[in-house]
């Protein structure tokens, strides 16, 4: 039986698409391999959002050149954000690649498969091969909208993934019903900007409408979604979150900077004041909400004072999680054309360290309030002899127990907290 290996880097969308590709290859009679060197077919699902990710991708492509020399029959497929409409340069630099296909361009993959004699119906791709179908994880990632129309000045995503295209609501509902029948208990709805969901569909359903539909699916216990955009998230969505018990109390709400001039240069479309107001509204309507954000430091021209504004906003907002990144110029973006990357790497590093230190203290305090409390955990798997899963607020919890907890909703009493995870003792199964 031929074997495949999928290498994935980047966002949840890439992970979801890798699951779909794995589903396609499984159905075509391939078997998953444990490494590049054990595979007959390799798929690289790439990310170029930051220079560091792109370097990893290019390094891996170089590594595969050697492997292809040793095994000329090895087939190498590349997808993800490295691939754009003009991939001539990638083809020229990496002639050992057999197929480049744009993210989500399954017709291209299928056409290639058919040429190789892998005949497969497209509908099989609709259902992600959740890892769970092999080792039953209870969670599935569901892309609901592709692309982005926002053009934030630093971001390459709209150039690589194109304009927004939503999947029909009925198709998503059908897919989740099928997944729930197969034992999936939690779905995470994915999009670069989930708040844009549905604007391009007949009748313009929105994310709140989709949540309402999904909430009535039997056996589905939890629904999450990401990523939201502070300028687009609606009051209707926040109120829907508050009213539906299956929708988890967790939001990814990237602020990117705490300074109005930098936000303007980033073309984010909101001010710090509007963001603050939004967070207050969310916290008022959904009191248990856990908030994650993204912050970029070292955007071109960011002064020490402007950076301090980001630091003080993080201090004030007390996010549960902050995803940090140093600005990385991406060729073709507006910021790349208009500004010089003039903040030295060591200054960016210093700024990253300062926010990280602050956030560690904030997360440590927030999590310490869970000490002694009982939380609901959906158990996703086992690591180093311990069961692990997430709370509704997306906090990682570990516990030890001899029983089989995979896929169960467990009540766990928290006994140990840290800024990054929690540890506890399992109490009972929640039905
Ligand atoms: S909203 Fe902005 S940062 Fe997010 S994917 Fe779209 S352009 Fe990029």
Jot down its keywords:
alpha/beta, OB fold (Dihydrolipoamide Acetyltransferase, E2P), single chain, 3 domains, five-stranded mixed β-barrel, 431 residues, Rossmann fold, five-stranded parallel β-sheet
Summarize the structure.
35% of the residues lie in helices and 22% in strands.
Would you mind describing this structure in some detail?
The strands form 4 sheets. This protein has a 5-stranded parallel sheet, with helices on both faces. Strands 13-14-15-17-16 form a 5-stranded mixed beta barrel. Strands 7-6-8-9 form a 4-stranded mixed sheet. By secondary structure, it is of the alpha/beta class. The chain folds into 3 domains: 123 residues, Methylthiotransferase, N-terminal domain (Rossmann fold, 3-Layer(aba) Sandwich); 241 residues, pyruvate-formate lyase- activating enzyme (Alpha-Beta Horseshoe); 56 residues, Beta Barrel (OB fold (Dihydrolipoamide Acetyltransferase, E2P)), CATH 2.40.50. Helix 1 links the parallel strand 1 and strand 2. The protein is 35% helix and 22% strand. The protein contains 13 helices and 17 strands. The site of iron/sulfur cluster has 10 residues, from helix 5.
